[in-house]
Amino acid sequence: xxxxxxxxxxxxxxxxxxxxxxxxxxxxxxxxxxxxxxxxxxxxxxxxxxxxxxxxxxxxxxxxxxxxxxxxxxxxxxxxxxxxxxxxxxxxxxxxxxxxxxxxxxxxxxxxxxxxxxxxxxxxxxxxxxxxxxxxxxxxxxxxxxxxxxxxxxxxxxxxxxxxxxxxxxxxxxxxxxxxxxxxxxxxxxxxxxxxxxxxxxxxxxxxxxxxxxxxxxxxxxxxxxxxxxxxxxxxxxxxxxxxxxxxxxxxxxxxxxxxxxxxxxxxxxxxxxxxxxxxxxxxxxxxxxxxxxxxxxxxxxxxxxxxxxxxxxxxxxxxxxxxxxxxxxxxxxxxxxxxxxxxxxxxxxxxxxxxxxxxxxxxxxxxxxxxx
Length: 373
Hints:
The chain is mainly alpha-helical. The protein has helices at 24-32, 73-78, 126-134, 164-192, 197-206, 208-239, 249-254, 261-283, 295-314, 318-321, 324-355; strands spanning 8-11, 18-22, 41-44, 52-53. Helix 4 (164-192) packs antiparallel against helix 6 (208-239).
């Protein structure tokens, strides 16, 4: 993410609520209209789980000019009203100076407004830390590689989204192109009244361009659809990592591609997600109202995935595809797709809930009131 794309959040000193995300330009507008002060706590992604006062963000506030001081009697008399007694000159008191070793000055670095300076201390002031702990709607953050104890608030993982609309669109296009090709080829075969495999191959060859084109579009949409499914699977596991779950996001997706072992790993990656998801949501107070996942639905999806592998080995022959086994395969594909969409709907709903967690108070109810976005 580039510097100009940094997204910022802040805690209002008025209602103690959390607002964001905003760009650096927005922060400068908030400073100008008085919404942000130097004591306002702000946060951006590179800070991990640390909130800092806005005054520590270099370039956000204009530098304060030192007030002029009157150092001589002459200058003081110049600004006195008429008739006032002159001010006596200030006598300098000699002081004994102790030489101190000089340190080389660090070169000043130009930092874009709203960006964190490289000299920012690694720890926040005690006053700012106390203000963060006093905010009741911000769960206690966990550090990477550590787990949150059950009974404590789960740290907000930050904005995360999943579009179930895109999933349904790609699945629908895959079905339209795939079955469109099959019905077109079936219609050509009926019109030609062919019976032997040689005649079937000849008729299909005459419509080869149309069939291949439709199948190619169906394959592209299906590939995109399954990539999105794996991305959302990875994202869901990533959101649970502070809950002491059974696997990491990389393993959950990567081990699915191991031959034979992937059949077993289906149950770990998908059914295990439902079980760990429900356990984590039940273990932390600020997640208790979150959407649950159905382990029964997920294990059904895994079983259908294993059945599909063996069914594909049986239907690799053209004659078998034209028989009852081919009809059974089409029925299986529709059933599998419906179950898969139900599974992805649960995952997308869970991801969107966790992605909005940073806008929710401890009780888990959505934040109410006027928003600036």
